[in-house]
Design goal:
Elements lengths: L12 E8 L2 H17 L3 E8 L1 H6 L2 H5 L4 E4 L4 H6 L12 H8 L11 E2 L2 E2 L2 E4 L3 E5 L1 H5 L5 H6 L2 H9 L4 E2 L6 H13 L14 H16 L10 H10 L3 E8 L19 E3 L16 E5 L6 H11 L2 H8 L8 H4 L2 H6 L3 H10 L11 H17 L3 H11 L4
Parallel strand pairs: 1-2, 1-3, 8-9
Antiparallel strand pairs: 3-11, 4-5, 6-11, 7-9, 7-10
């Protein structure tokens, strides 16, 4: 895949990369890469994009065939390892660099991309499910920012119910299952920790009942929205004041993206069902790995190391990205620019829930995403929905 000489760049080794099609996925990455392309002689890295849907569900062997460097979701790690799709970064990066990075990441960082003794990617992007809100709309019903970051979801839902505004959420495909997982964590049971069911029946049923209640306080359109469509609707209309569970997107908190082109800025903060200290929600984020199709893994590793360096990670955070390094998340200038997005959600991501990463997990996950969305559309009972999820994941 690496090409060494084309018209106009004689002697330049050109690497290709693929990421997902949203400013969070490519804007910060492109800004950092443009800087590196000027600094690293005789080499260049070029990025292409695919959709958020492909990022979430496209098999990693397909993605790995498209580029030298790939950005992918951590549950694909087991498949990548088993099928030998990626280079082990421990063979190309120094132990000192890996150790330094491990000490400066949010959430579970480097651990997300370790599997069976190898390190198959580094945490380029970090996210978890948090709450999103329009402060200007919430203030009209007496909810200040401090209220929104400290009150429980049921309290806020009761305030929304008595107002002219609605809840927003993403229940399309992956959005529905990811919210179900987050709700289960908040209710005290991590998915797949029980032997006979995805979660204990009482927890699973309560989670589904809450999801149905959210739909009642929102619109059926939430079953057609992925995360980006949900946030775009919140930003572009004055109808939806609060979203209790969604993957955070710092870009929507900035003036240059969230506050322009007809959008209103969105702010983010922790979400909790009760007043206890449970912040746990599902982790997202993305790793940067080197495809086995890459003909120059040594050069690719140089780009990986630089893109995960302190300088590039901060540059990404200032350019609509959402880097994995803690030093970027606590940077004062980064938080000023993003209305404290990173500072407000740091505790949440540090307490996040890691989905399974074993080979084969992503296939039933995709089936469960489709099934849960369908069941919610059809208005099926919580008992029926939970039974189907248990069956898909091999229980009962």
């Amino acid at each position: 895949m690496t090409r060494k000489s084309v018209e106009g760049d004689e002697g330049v080794a050109v690497l290709t990369g693929i990421t997902w099609d949203h400013p969070r996925g490519y804007a910060g990455l492109k800004a950092a890469t443009d800087s590196l392309n000027k600094e690293l002689p005789d080499s260049r890295l070029e990025w292409t994009v695919h959709s958020l849907a492909d990022f979430s569900a496209l098999p990693i062997d397909v993605v790995a065939s498209k580029a030298d460097l790939i950005v992918f979701d951590h549950p694909f790690v087991g498949n990548a390892c088993k099928r030998e799709l990626l280079y082990d970064l421990k063979e190309y990066l120094s132990p000192e660099f890996i150790r330094e990075l491990r000490d400066d990441v949010v959430g579970f960082g480097v651990d997300l991309y370790e599997y069976d003794g190898g390190l198959w990617a580094l945490p380029l992007d970090a996210a978890c499910q948090v709450a999103a809100f329009r402060s200007d709309l919430c203030q009209r019903i007496g909810l200040r920012r401090d209220d929104l970051t400290s009150a429980t979801v049921p309290d806020i839902m009761s305030r929304i119910e008595g107002s002219s505004y609605k809840l927003a959420i993403s229940f399309k495909s992956a959005g529905s299952l990811m919210t179900f997982f987050s709700l289960c964590c908040q209710l005290g049971a991590k998915p797949f920790s029980a032997r006979t069911s995805v979660v204990p029946d009482s927890v699973g049923l309560d989670a589904i009942r809450i999801m149905k209640r959210i739909i009642e306080l929102s619109t059926p359109d939430v079953l057609d929205w992925d995360s980006i469509e949900c946030l775009e609707t919140m930003a572009r209309t004055d109808e939806f004041a609060y979203c209790p569970f969604i993957f955070g997107f710092s870009a929507y908190s900035t003036d240059e993206y969230g506050g322009c082109d007809g959008r209103h800025p969105i702010e983010f903060g922790p979400t909790r069902l009760g007043q206890d200290d449970a912040f746990g929600t599902i982790l997202g984020g993305a790793g940067l790995g080197i495809s086995r199709h890459c003909e120059n893994p040594e050069l690719a590793a140089k780009f990986v190391e630089n893109l995960l360096g302190v300088k590039c990670q901060r540059e990404m955070a200032l350019s609509l990205g959402q880097p994995g390094r803690r030093s970027a998340w606590v940077d004062e200038s980064v938080n000023r620019k993003t209305r404290d997005f990173f500072a407000s959600t740091l505790d949440s991501i540090d307490r996040g829930y890691i989905r399974p990463r074993n080979p084969g997990y992503t296939d039933p996950q995709d089936e469960a995403c489709s099934s849960l969305e369908h069941c919610l559309r059809q208005g099926e009972s919580p008992e029926s929905i939970l039974g189907q999820l248990n069956e898909i994941f091999g229980y009962k």
